[in-house]
């Protein structure tokens, strides 16, 4: 089959280590399924600040723009935390989302069997929790005008939250489509009792809902959603919301599964292009030690295969291999009950490759 | 002692029922401690929309402005949910906060012994959880300019989030003072990696922190805070944050205690004036049945006595009475294990009065 170009952005902290295992897995699928991948590596985040003076060098953006999909490890670390805005890894992250038009962030929150005790929630509450947060990623208060000014009461800071109907419609449609493929329940989260952007959001959801009449829509206020995620996590299926609320709620949802180290995510635009990355961060405290868990990144590859390439066979094979390796009792340190039996990043990658 | 004027806003749903019990308790403290209260009742919320055509009638505002403190029951209900903005109960709530200058919302999240199993969190995770969220209440995206406009991509909605240093400083100072009276740990929550208002917030916290050198300050990003509240709730003491984040996080914090039906809150301005209300809503489904739990409202009175009037003796007496009644096994339906033994709103109020 046709060669797929994958831009690889290993990033900072444990990023390079976990990405290396994901590449092993992709190479194995070339052998097994006859797919062809071409990898191009780009500097991004803290390492790009250090080496190129900017978190998102133009070369990296070019590599991504020429690619069919992007695999991202992790970015950031304390080293760059006190930098000025233009020299911070997050600025690169926001820049790449905008430049690549990745308006939709898909974050599944599922409970892994081997981690069900890792949640702080009671097992009976967690039982059956399997939801997806669809977060708008290139609009809202993240990207609106921001500035300082002198006011009557001293210095003033301003952030602007803007949404137009086109932006709302495309993310909401995508969420409806995701819901149609699952339990056909969509919770749209907003703060329509306070915000004008939320009122436009809610009107838009209501306007297009009849086109997806098989999906049951519920409007939930963001504060109430933060509570209901705790009270009845398993009752949610697909949650769609704007950028800032999605940032908060997707992290809350991920954490309540107890499986945050195993969760993958996809950031999508128009068409099939997408950027895939683990939900966890760059974990600077364990970077370079070869003990990070590569599973979230490997599962991000499965997501890429499914959503961008339509390689359902290889996607399922990866997910099954991960499951089998876990079922056989292999664990990296973060998920091991008996830490003395924990295996390293490379060993976990090799086992998954062998199980494919 | 001098007569204190209390504006009583019973509001909607179960509001009038729970407020009636709180008044019983206040009257009893007049007898026991020699205090004198004068109650003036005002219409507010849905009932004010129905009777006066506005959620916050001028008469009600006048009553509040002449009072030393306000006791609020609950507002809102499905009946008014689809009204236009000016005719919604929430608009009254935002209006009263602004008109009375209530810039600080104090929301304790504590676990009640008799409810510790009601939480969806594991008991060992919940153990020792006792935190306060100090939420900025009259600024930010709630009160910034909001409008619609026609853009290149269709209709557009805009919300503006504005904070000036003066607003930030007064709420942060108050949080420092709350922290000084507790475990001397303050978590300031923002999104300084994205928002300009958050950067001004963080700078302000850092600037005034040296004046409270006995308090240990931690900056937490809002998405991370949503996670950490779940992972290590008992490690938080005082959390201070802006209006929108505070709305979400205080509800998350309240829900994780499992005690949401028992929690009280205070909204304060400059000086000792304050508005006190239970954290729970108007519960339209059980309104008028005489089965609502009045404890959160009664504990809001204790908070009023302590924070506005300095009546520490009566505040403590109320809290002890509530504890004793609960310890003796009395329960309203919401907190009863054996629902058949549940007592009503009035009976619970009477028991607390008797225990005083
Ligand atoms: C690092 C930060 C800018 C980013 C965000 O807020 O979007 C992160 O929290 C995320 O969710 O990917
Ligand atoms: C009803 C609503 C406007 C209000 C708010 O968002 O402030 C409520 O959620 C609260 O927290 O008191």
UniProtKB/TrEMBL annotation, chains A, B:
Q: Which InterPro entries match?
A: IsoCit/isopropylmalate_DH_CS, IsoPropMal-DH-like_dom, Isopropylmalate_DH
Localization: Cytoplasm
Q: What class of enzyme is it?
A: oxidoreductase
GO biological process annotations for this chain's record? L-leucine biosynthetic process
Q: What is the protein's major site of localization? A: cytoplasm
Q: Where does NAD(+) bind?
A: 77-90, 281-293
- The UniProt record gives the binding positions of Mg(2+) as 223, 247, 251
Boundaries of each Isopropylmalate dehydrogenase-like domain copy? 5-352
Q: Which SUPFAM superfamilies does the UniProt record give?
A: Isocitrate/Isopropylmalate dehydrogenase-like
Q: Name one GO molecular function term.
A: magnesium ion binding
Name the residues annotated as site: Important for catalysis: 142, 191
Give the metabolic or biological pathway.
Amino-acid biosynthesis; L-leucine biosynthesis; L-leucine from 3-methyl-2-oxobutanoate: step 3/4
Q: Where does substrate bind?
A: 97, 107, 135, 223
Q: Which GO terms describe its cellular component?
A: cytosol
Give the required cofactors.
Mn(2+); Mg(2+)
Q: What SMART domains does the record tag this protein with?
A: Iso_dh
Annotated catalysed reactions: (2R,3S)-3-isopropylmalate + NAD(+) = 4-methyl-2-oxopentanoate + CO2 + NADH
Cofactor note (record): Binds 1 Mg(2+) or Mn(2+) ion per subunit.
Keywords in alphabetical order:
Amino-acid biosynthesis, Branched-chain amino acid biosynthesis, Cytoplasm, Leucine biosynthesis, Magnesium, Manganese, Metal-binding, NAD, Oxidoreductase
The protein's role, per its UniProt record: Catalyzes the oxidation of 3-carboxy-2-hydroxy-4-methylpentanoate (3-isopropylmalate) to 3-carboxy-4-methyl-2-oxopentanoate. The product decarboxylates to 4-methyl-2 oxopentanoate.
What does the subunit section of this Swiss-Prot or TrEMBL entry state? Homodimer.
Family according to the record? Belongs to the isocitrate and isopropylmalate dehydrogenases family. LeuB type 1 subfamily.
Q: What is this protein called?
A: 3-isopropylmalate dehydrogenase
Origin organism is: Cohnella terricola
Classification lineage: Bacteria, Bacillati, Bacillota, Bacilli, Bacillales
């Amino acid at each position: 089959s046709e060669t797929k170009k994958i831009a690889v952005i290993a990033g900072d902290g444990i990023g390079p280590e976990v990405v290396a295992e994901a590449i092993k897995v992709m190479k194995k699928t070339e052998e097994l399924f006859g797919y062809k991948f071409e990898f191009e590596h780009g500097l991004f985040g803290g390492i790009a600040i250090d080496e190129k003076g900017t978190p998102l060098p133009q070369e990296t953006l070019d590599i991504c723009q020429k690619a069919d999909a992007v695999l991202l490890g992790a970015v950031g670390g304390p080293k760059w935390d006190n930098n000025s805005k233009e020299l911070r890894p997050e600025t690169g992250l926001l820049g790449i989302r905008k430049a690549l038009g990745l308006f939709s962030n898909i974050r599944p929150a599922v409970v892994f069997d081997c981690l069900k005790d890792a949640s702080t929630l009671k097992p009976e509450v967690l039982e059956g929790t399997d939801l997806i947060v669809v977060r708008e990623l290139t609009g809202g208060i993240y990207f609106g005008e921001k500035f300082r000014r002198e006011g009557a009461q001293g210095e003033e800071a301003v952030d602007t939250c803007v949404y137009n109907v086109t932006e709302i419609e495309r993310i909401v449609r995508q969420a409806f489509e995701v819901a149609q493929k699952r339990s056909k329940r969509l919770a749209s989260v907003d703060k329509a009792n306070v915000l004008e952007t939320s009122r436009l959001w809610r009107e838009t959801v209501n306007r297009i809902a009849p086109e997806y009449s098989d999906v049951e829509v519920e409007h939930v206020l963001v504060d109430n959603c933060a509570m209901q995620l705790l009270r009845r996590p398993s009752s949610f299926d697909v949650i769609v919301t704007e950028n800032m609320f999605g940032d908060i709620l997707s992290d809350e949802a991920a954490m309540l599964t107890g499986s945050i180290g195993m969760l993958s995510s996809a950031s999508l635009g128009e068409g099939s292009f997408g950027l895939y990355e683990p939900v966890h961060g760059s974990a600077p405290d364990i970077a370079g030690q070869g003990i990070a868990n590569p599973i979230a990144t490997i599962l991000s590859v499965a997501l890429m295969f499914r959503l961008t390439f339509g390689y359902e066979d290889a996607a399922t094979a990866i997910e099954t291999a991960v499951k089998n390796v876990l079922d056989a009792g292999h664990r990296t340190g973060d998920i091991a009950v008996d830490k003395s039996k924990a295996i390293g990043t490379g060993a976990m990658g090799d086992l998954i490759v062998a199980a494919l």
